[in-house]
Each structure stands twice: as structure tokens, then as C-alpha cells.
Design a protein that fits this description.
The complex is a heterodimer of chains A (about 150) and B (about 750). Chain A is built from five helices and five strands, in the order ββαβββαααα. With about 150 residues, chain A is of the alpha+beta class. Chain A has two domains: about 80 residues, Beta-grasp domain (Ubiquitin-like (UB roll), Roll), CATH 3.10.20; about 60 residues, DNA polymerase, domain 1 (Orthogonal Bundle), CATH 1.10.150.120. A five-stranded mixed beta sheet of chain A has the order 2-1-5-3-4, with helices on both faces. In chain A, strand 1 and strand 2 form a beta hairpin. In chain A, about 60% of the residues are buried. Chain B is of the alpha+beta class. In chain B, strands 3-7-1-14-11-12-13 form a seven-stranded mixed beta sheet, with helices on both faces. In chain B, strands 9-17-16-15-10-31 form a six-stranded mixed beta sheet. In chain B, helix 9 runs parallel beside helix 17, helix 12 packs parallel to helix 13 and helix 15 packs across helix 17. Classes of the chains: A alpha+beta (about 150), B alpha+beta (about 750).
């Protein structure tokens, strides 16, 4: 069936199967592989997108249910000339190793700063607790977010 | 006039240079293996055994082939070459050869026009099984002679006795590496009967060797390319879908993509060996170790993989970072019908570090001695002999320094908050701060560097000077650890230019870099890059009679004598090297000899808050001091220390694959718990720099150390808080409550 989704500011019409997730549609039908597929159970946050203003796992949204929605993926957060402050901070603080979780952290983190521009450390940890990183131990990610919010050194 | 002032190289060694693949990773454009695709590609899928041990009675692929869109269904009969593969021992059929030996063993593979059809077709294959009794108890398997390796270590006087004796039995669970990136492969036919294979791997050359043998092809017909990798931690040291995706592509003449989903990933790669360890430590009244006796049994699962090497590591690090002249170790890697085990960060040393560090704490208690003083008293130093192998330690080994440094890190404030996010159990539970007990524990871990036991361990690299800058060519796998940055930093420092790009070659373009494992690539590929860069620099300086190479050319006495364009007038200038570490030797029948190339040591201190009534633990801090030789990139080192601690903490308090009758009961991120942001302790690190006897600039590999002693430090802290005699990891609430 055809659905229309506003993805990163552009209206995209996509023919999706009934069983297809939004994650699958983004990666395989809309050529946006930046959103990562690591568990497909909503446990790891690698597929986080902003969906009608909410940060959620795109693996848990049926593509058919996304008709008429507005979605921002990691590809929509930077321009050719400018990185999102979260992206810049993660680079500066060494918060990227294998990078497979990184798009999820960038998207979830950008949303956190939208809704809470000055989160405390526990608030950062809680807001990002749905995103698993297996490489960094989260220390560098925490330092990156503290830098962005002005809490860090 | 040209000044003698050297231009400052940005991003040389010792700086926290940014990783070159960082930007593509944060904007989502970095191509992982699972992101590769082409218009005309097929999708592959795998049918797996539903039994841990069973005889295959009937395999009917016709129903799968009848499905519209299915292009191939292949079984073991379709394997063109060697039917068996394996890194150390070729003992695993590419696809089930009539007997399934573990739950999830691949039976058949399918290629179809889309992913869903491929999965449906795999499910449509009709299989009849005769279930057989699985062997799931490693002790029983060993008794019946089902082993991959049996080792003994006999050093000193077996009759030696100490006046203070402690014994213990310890167990560690099966741990999964759980890299976030799934196993993935993409095979593209070259139109001449060969393939280009883009695969997730830790060592493409050793994969290549196994793939061409099973496909019965010449080396140059199959080119293995490094693909973007989402973490590894040992899980990619062995073949998973590599041969399957190649077979499907050859059979169909089409590009084929295969990607495991998370549950398939849990069965599709090897695990950390579960272990059972019995220990007896004997010491004199002053706390000097007199004798250590141990029996180790590691469950290798159904196929060999790297069990032989893992067992050797476990045995050689039975005593940890301590001197002891009398050692008796009997170690067995058993063959069972449990999930196959192999490499995971720490590689055997994790298990025995847990056992031996628990023993050191017990010994300290029996001696009424400070646990750190006991460790300092027995600490290994350069010139000492490794307790097990008797090898004399060359190079640096600052054991006392790491203990002193971690002890000196200030302790955190006592808990004075009822914020549930700071309490054991977190927001889901209602532990009041008044019922929380704090505990502090220490542990020290020792690990070898690079490959051992006489293995011909080398890494190739090629440094090329072009007018656009320097290219460093390697086939070493960047799995996230930051090797790419370190290679750049080394080349920049030696060649005097910021403009260095690392180029990943395929198996036809360069020789092996060896495995991205055993903490070895900083030293091995880093060593190769160092040697190639030095050779390239000296070659250029000699040709132009210069004394210094800078970004813009060759200088003599501070004057530019040849520009880079002149240097490259006849084309790029290159230097190709093969780098080897100091030779190692196989152990003798008593486990004695110079089996290792070098050693690295670390110490951890854990602070935990425990609710002993509910059995809940919050790991508040894990601090560490780490022997690094020379810090090439401090920020990347911190990343390894923090990330390694988190995997050690996972094994300490939450991570275990539940295997029941050979069947994995929790192959999902819902049921196999790994630490989240809220679980993550604060970490303070101290880097100890004492240059080693080999490796670029004296650097040591530090990928595994952080995971090794963090686990026993956390358990020691929980023991201190609860008084419980905890002997198994992970420690679960029932262990703390004592149910």
C-alpha cells in the first residue's frame, strides 16, 4: 500500500508491505540506511527516529501506520556544511567507536535537548537509557552531552 | 630564510586525534556491511537445527524451490570444495552433514528475490530429525574423552606446601559479545567465475583461506574486502555466514546479501567459554605464594573454533600477575553439544582472573592481611618468571604501579540521596538509601599481547607517498577500536605530514595484517605502519640527501631541497613491510617455555551499593590504572578502558546466556541484559606509561585488559558489602540473598 511520510522535511510516497516496519521502510525503501537495525525489539535504540515530535524506535512502528506522519532521521540532523551540536560534541569527546549506536544516540540526544535544553546528569542518563552502546561504556557519550548543555568542563 | 623550527604536526602520536571515520558515523553515512545493497541483489536466509544434537533423516528442499522468487536452496551436498571449515581445526561442516551438533547449526541456505521470501523459503524446507541425547555437561564430556585440548602445567616442586591454604570452586557463565552490528555479508560475482566478498570479520585473510578451501577456488578468484563493522569483541574471529553467502552468489550468478537478525546473531557466533575452576592457593605466614594448584574446565561447545588457544591463555594466566615458583594446573577444553565458544575480549584470562583474584582475597583474609599488600608482595615485575610457564618477563610490567595508582584515586562520597536513579534497582524498585550497604573491592589482571605458542604472527602494511599525501594500506580490521586513527598518528609523526589516509585493501592487494584480537593491532599493524613509514622516510631522505621530511618536501639543514612533487616525480614512492613481534615458542609437555610475546597489566577498584534484602546491586564506580606502554591516543585509551569495564561489569552482575539442554533460552536483547546508560558506573582512569620492548614507540595493546580484572573487582566489592562468599558470575539477586 502507498503511504506518504514527511521524512527529513520532504514528502515521500512509499509502497510498503503490511508487515513492514518503519525502520525497514526507511532503510530499504527510502534509501536512508543511517537508521540502524540491531535488535528489532525496541531494546537497543539503534533505530531511533523522531516521529511526530516523539523520540522512538522505528522498528516498533508499522510503516503503514506512519502514513501522514513526520519523521526525522539522523540524515536530517546535519547539513552539508554544519553538524548538529550533538554530532560535533560526540566527535570531539571520542563518543564514537564502532558507531553502530551513534545515529540512535544522535537522534535521541537531539530530541532530549529540544525538550530539555539543560538536563542534569541523571536526566541525560535516563533519557538515553533506551540506547545501548557496547563500545564506549557511555562515559564519552555523557561527556559529549555535558559539553553541549554547558554542564561539562 | 627558511627557519629550523619544525612545523607542528596536527594529530601525531600522544594526541587525542579525531578518528577519520567519525564524521560519517555521526551523520549516518558510514556504510556498515548490513547497509550494502544493489538493485539486482538477492537476499539469503539460513535454516537452522532446532535440536542441540540430532540425526538428519530427511531434507526435502523442493517445497522451498517451489516458492515464487526463490533462486537457490543449498545444502552440504552443494559445497564445492572442503566440506569442513575452522580457523585452528577444520571440524565444522559448512552446512549440516547429517548430524546436528548444536542448537542453531546451519542446515540449508536460501537465496530469494526479497528478504521475506528467503525466510519463508527456509522455513518451507522439510526436515525430519531423530533427536539424540545432547552432551551438555563439560565434566562428563571430558570424562568420556570429548575434548579439544588437555593441558598441564607443572612448574617447581609439586610437593611444596604452604602454611596458609585456601581453596575455592568458581564458575563463570557463557557471555555473548553482543556487538550492535549484526553479522552481514555481501557477495558480488565478478563475471569471471569469482567473487568480491564484503564481510564482517576480524581477520579477512584467515576467513579467505577457509572460504576458498570450501569453495575449491584459487586465492585470486575470491577477494575478501573489509566492510564497515559494528563492533566485534571476538564474535567475528570465526566464520559465520561468509561461505554461505559466497555459495549462494556463485550458484545464482547474482549479488547476494545476508544479514542475521539479533536472535540469529546470538546463535551465529561463538561465545565466551563458560568455565568451572577449582583452585588451591598456598602461602607462607608472610603472604608469599608458595604453590598454586588448579583444575580448569572450559566448555568449548560443539566445534573447535579457538578453544585450544583460549584454554592455553586460561592455563597460563591461572595465577594472574603474581610470582609463584610451584604451580600445578590441569586444564581441559571440553567438546559438548552446547553453543560453540571461542574468542571474547580477554580470551581465557577473564575466567582465570576471576578465580585467582577471588583466591587472593580469600588468602588475604586467611592471613589477616590487606588484600592490596598481599598483591604487592607477590606482584610480578620485569625479570621475574611468569608463575605458570616460567617465562622471564621482558619489557615493562608495572604491576605495583597500577595497584598504587588505582588505590590513590579518591573514593566517592557516601550515598546520601534517595533519587531512585542512584539506588540499587533503579526507578523500578523502592530501595531506601538507609538499607543500602557500600562495598569496595580490588582486582589485578594480567594478559599476554598478540599471538603466542610459536604462531608465526605478522602484519603487513604499505606506506605510499603521493603528491596528495601519504596513504597507509592495510587489511587490518577496524572494528571500532580506533586502529585507523592510531595508524594515521604513527604515519603523521614519522613522515612529518598531517595528510595521511588509511586505505583498506582487500585480500588480493596486500598480505595479512593478522587478527584484530589478542590486543594486538596497535602493536602489530601499528608496528608495521611504523616500520613502513620509517622505511619510506629513509628511502626518500637518502635519495634526496636530506635530513628531514616535512609536509612540503625534503629538507637539509633547514632548507627545502626537494618538494613533494619532485619526490614523486616518477610516481608514488612506497615501502611495503611485514612486521613480526619477538618470536614465541610452543610450550613443552609441562607447559614451560617462552610462549608469549609480551604482557600487560591493569588494576581495578570497584565501589558498589548493595541492597542485601532484595539482592540488588548498583555499581557506583569502577576506577582503573592501566599499563599502556606508551599512550598513542589518550582519548581512545579512555574509550577502551571505559568500554572494557562495562563488559566486565556485564559479566559481573547481569550477562549470562541461559543454555538449557544445549538450547539458548534468551537470544534477544529483551532477555540477555547488557548494561545501559543507567547501569554505567563512573570511571576514573590512570594511565601508566612505561615503554615496552617492542611495538611502536613502546606502546602496548590495551583492548582486553579493561575487561579482565573489572569483573573480580566488582565481585570483591559485593563480597565486602554483603559478607557473601560469591563464587559464580554473574552474581544475581538470589546469590546475594542466599536463596
Amino acid at each position: 500500500m502507498n503511504v506518504t511520510i514527511t521524512v527529513n522535511g520532504k514528502d515521500r510516497v512509499v509502497d510498503v508491505a503490511g508487515h513492514e516496519s518503519l525502520l525497514h521502510a526507511l532503510r530499504n525503501d527510502l534509501d536512508l540506511p543511517g537508521t540502524k537495525d540491531a535488535c528489532e525489539q525496541g531494546e537497543c535504540g539503534s533505530c531511533t527516529v523522531i516521529f511526530d515530535g516523539e523520540s522512538l524506535c522505528s522498528c516498533l512502528v508499522m510503516a503503514a501506520d506512519a502514513d501522514g506522519s513526520t519523521v526525522t532521521t539522523v540524515e536530517g540532523l546535519s547539513s552539508d556544511t554544519e553538524l548538529h551540536p550533538v554530532q560535533e560534541a560526540m566527535l570531539a569527546e571520542g563518543a564514537v567507536q564502532c558507531g553502530f549506536c551513534t545515529p540512535g544516540f544522535v537522534v535521541a540526544g537531539s530530541h532530549l535537548l529540544e525538550v530539555n535544553p539543560h538536563p542534569t546528569e541523571p536526566e541525560i542518563r535516563e533519557a538515553l537509557s533506551g540506547n545501548i552502546c557496547r563500545c564506549t561504556g557511555y562515559g564519552a557519550i555523557l561527556r559529549a552531552f555535558e559539553t553541549v548543555t554547558g554542564e561539562g568542563s | 630564510m627558511t627557519t629550523r623550527t619544525k612545523p607542528r604536526i596536527v594529530g601525531g602520536i600522544g594526541t587525542s586525534a579525531r578518528r577519520p571515520d567519525g564524521k560519517p558515523k555521526v551523520i549516518g553515512s558510514f556504510a556498515y556491511a548490513s547497509d550494502l545493497s544493489s538493485e539486482d541483489m538477492l537476499w539469503g536466509a539460513t535454516l537452522r537445527s532446532p535440536h542441540a544434537h540430532a540425526r538428519l533423516l530427511k531434507l526435502d528442499i523442493a517445497p522451498a524451490l517451489a516458492i515464487s522468487g526463490v533462486r537457490a536452496v543449498l545444502t552440504q551436498d552443494d559445497v564445492p570444495g572442503e566440506p569442513l571449515f575452522g580457523q585452528e581445526e577444520q571440524d565444522q561442516p559448512v552446512l549440516c552433514d547429517g548430524i546436528a551438533r548444536y542448537w542453531g547449526e546451519p542446515v540449508a541456505v536460501v537465496a530469494a528475490e526479497d528478504e521475506e521470501t528467503a525466510r519463508r523459503a527456509a522455513a518451507a524446507i522439510v526436515v525430519e530429525w531423530e533427536p539424540l541425547e545432547p552432551v551438555v555437561d563439560p565434566d562428563k564430556a571430558a570424562d568420556e574423552g570429548f575434548t579439544f585440548r588437555e593441558m598441564k602445567v607443572r612448574r617447581g616442586d609439586e610437593a611444596a606446601v604452604g602454611s596458609v591454604v585456601v581453596e575455592g570452586f568458581y564458575e563463570t557463565a557463557t557471555q555473548d559479545q553482543a556487538p550492535l552490528g549484526p553479522e552481514a555479508g555481501f557477495a558480488i560475482p565478478d563475471g569471471e567465475g569469482g567473487l568480491d566478498l564484503y564481510i564482517t570479520s576480524q581477520w579477512i585473510h584467515v576467513d579467505h583461506r577457509q572460504i576458498i578451501a570450501c569453495l575449491d577456488m584459487e586465492p585470486d578468484q575470491i577477494r575478501c574486502h573489509p566492510a564497515g563493522i559494528g563492533g566485534a569483541f571476538g564474535s567475528r574471529e570465526d566464520i559465520s555466514l561468509h561461505i554461505h553467502v559466497a555459495m549462494l552468489s556463485l550458484a545464482t550468478g547474482r549479488p547476494v546479501k545476508m544479514v542475521y537478525d539479533r536472535s540469529e546473531s546470538f546463535v551465529g557466533h561463538v561465545k565466551r567459554h563458560p568455565s568451572r575452576m577449582w583452585y588451591r592457593h598456598e602461602a607462607d605466614e608472610d603472604g608469599n605464594l608458595v604453590k598454586v594448584t588448579a583444575r580448569l574446565i572450559f566448555d568449548g561447545g560443539a566445534y573447535a573454533h579457538t578453544s585450544r588457544a583460549v584454554l592455553a591463555n586460561a592455563a597460563f594466566f591461572t595465577v594472574g600477575a603474581y610470582r609463584c615458583d610451584n604451580v600445578v594446573v590441569d586444564a581441559i577444553a571440553a567438546r559438548t553439544n552446547n553453543p560453540p565458544c571461542g574468542a571474547m575480549r580477554g580470551f581465557g584470562a577473564v575466567q582465570t582472573c576471576f578465580g585467582s583474584e577471588m583466591q587472593m582475597d580469600r588468602l588475604a583474609e586467611a592471613l589477616d592481611m590487606d588484600p592490596l599488600d598481599l598483591r604487592r608482595r607477590n606482584a610480578l615485575a620485569p625479570g621475574d618468571r611468569i608463575a605458570t610457564s616460567g617465562q622471564i618477563i621482558q619489557g615493562s610490567l608495572p604491576t605495583v604501579a597500577v595497584i598504587d595508582a588505582v588505590e590513590a584515586i579518591p573514593l566517592p562520597e557516601p550515598l546520601h540521596s534517595d533519587d531512585p536513579r542512584l539506588l540499587p534497582g533503579g526507578t523500578g524498585l523502592t530501595t531506601p538509601s538507609s538499607s543500602v550497604v557500600r562495598g569496595i573491592g580490588y582486582a589485578v589482571g594480567l594478559k599476554n599481547l598478540a599471538f603466542s605458542e610459536g604462531f608465526d604472527d605478522f602484519a603487513e602494511a604499505r606506506a605510499v607517498m603521493t603528491t596528495a599525501g601519504v596513504e597507509v594500506h592495510t587489511a587490518a580490521m577496524e572494528v571500532g577500536q580506533g586502529l585507523v586513527t592510531v595508524c594515521q598518528q604513527i604515519a603523521r609523526t614519522i613522515l612529518g605530514t598531517d595528510r595521511v589516509a588509511v586505505v583498506w585493501d582487500d585480500t588480493s592487494q596486500i598480505g595479512s595484517a593478522g587478527s584484530t584480537s589478542a590486543s594486538r593491532q596497535t602493536q602489530m599493524t601499528g608496528g608495521a605502519v611504523h616500520a613502513a613509514a620509517v622505511g619510506l622516510r629513509d628511502q626518500i631522505l637518502a635519495k634526496h640527501d636530506g635530513d628531514e621530511l616535512r609536509d612540503d618536501g625534503v629538507y637539509r639543514d633547514g632548507e627545502l631541497v626537494a618538494s613533494i612533487s619532485e619526490v614523486c616525480a616518477d610516481g608514488p614512492v612506497e615501502q611495503h613491510v611485514q612486521f613480526r613481534h619477538p618470536a614465541t615458542y610452543p610450550p613443552d609437555e609441562n607447559g614451560q617455555g617462552d610462549v608469549h610475546a609480551g604482557f600487560v597489566v591493569a588494576a581495578h577498584r570497584a565501589v558498589v551499593d548493595v541492597d542485601a534484602e532484595l539482592g540488588l546491586v548498583r555499581v557506583v564506580r569502577v576506577d582503573t590504572a592501566q599499563d599502556v606502554g606508551k599512550a598513542l591516543n589518550p582519548q581512545a585509551i579512555t574509550g577502551q578502558l571505559e568500554g572494557g569495564i562495562m563488559q566486565g561489569m556485564g559479566l559481573a552482575v547481569m550477562e549470562q546466556l541461559v543454555v538449557d539442554g544445549g538450547v539458548i533460552r534468551n537470544p534477544t536483547f529483551t532477555d540477555y541484559l547488557i548494561p545501559t546508560f543507567l547501569d554505567a558506573p563512573d570511571v576514573e582512569t590512570r594511565i601508566i606509561e612505561e615503554g615496552d620492548h617492542w611495538g611502536p614507540f613502546g606502546a602496548k595493546g590495551i583492548g582486553e585488559s579493561p575487561t579482565i580484572s573489572s569483573t573480580p573487582a566488582i565481585i570483591a566489592a559485593i563480597r565486602a558489602a554483603t559478607g557473601r562468599d560469591l563464587t559464580r558470575v554473574p552474581v544475581l539477586p538470589e546469590d546475594i540473598i542466599g536463596i
